[in-house]
Model the fold of this input.
Amino acid sequence: MRAWRWDLFCRVIDNFGDAGVCWRLAAALGARGHAVRLWIDDASALAWMAPQGAPGVTVQPWDDTPPDLPPGDVVVEAFGCAPPPGFVARMAARMAARLSANTAPPVWINLEYLSAEPYVERSHGLRSPQLAGPGAGLDKWFFYPGFTPATGGLLQDGAAVGDDPAGARTWLRAQPWAQAWRESDRLVLLFGYASLPLPGLLQALAGQPTTLLLPPGALRDRLQAEPLPSNLRLAALPHVSQPEFDRVLAATDLNLVRGEDSFVRAQLCAGAPLIWQIYPQHDGAHAPKLAAFLDRYLAGCPPALAATVRQGFHAANGLAPWPAALPELSAWRAVHQAWRAQLRAQDDLCAQLLRFVKGRQG
Ligand code: TRH
Done:
């Protein structure tokens, strides 16, 4: 397969997931020899997320007056962010050109949000003919990440870090910000939103000596502002790069994660179980999204354990009180590791996207 030129458009809504997912995709394509122009309106998070950049990836600032650059072979709009109208018009102009110079218009992909809900399998790969506007005549294709072979899969690059948890713990132990961690302490990452319901969680965690790893943010500010149960210690992390964040996930005993990308990485890179605080949506759409994931994640789980894990996920999302004690970690690890193995055996999103594009090139 020859190398293609990609235009990947990313609008940062808030937090870090838009940039996180798009950077991860861009770096994965670049690692496979493709040239990726990442259009992003706020690249600030990349300074710590990807301080070294990535082979094949150039960051193109996306402001109100984007340069009139010619579209590449593939255009990906992340989460329906819509490329600039002038750029789309230049994509469409290639249709006319094709009649003469045989330059097919770019393959146009809408990379959708991740969900475990059934609609994803029905929607993945659907064609959306553009009937009006600057892209009239072009086809846009829906590409859905997911947890089953009937979806576009997950970005798996770097997930092998989870195969060496001892190595990850050795790395973590050497970090200056981890010195509060006593070896005998349980190690728990808390990467949630400020809204994370805390009192019940801290009580449940205080059942045994535990070091809490806290990335920068409003949740950490909250925790540092209040007295903690004596069994709990805090380790304040700086922002670390995505590969280092994967190592943190691989080193812990439990990961409370959020949004989309850290949620995926906690499944692919960690042998430890996770609790997911979903990105809250005002219309409550997050509840069915949470339920759909839990049904898949807990499908092979003994009922009593599944009930406590489900309650923990619901508690993290304000849908139930925290259980007095967290589920027994070793049984939960076994369920999590079986799920991880199932996901790791699936076709990687990048490989699927390349095949998908090849099958739609004019
Ligand atoms: O930051 P988030 O809450 O991003 C959210 C979600 O993506 C959500 O789906 C989206 O709708 C919203 O943004 C707009 O959580 P997420 O998805 O886990 O993204 C965090 C990214 O930051 C992820 O790629 C991991 C990375 N990261 C690091 O690389 N280093 C760090 O130190 C930390 C804390 C995060």
Q: What stands out?
A: The chain has a mean pLDDT of 96. The two ends are 15 Å apart (CA to CA).
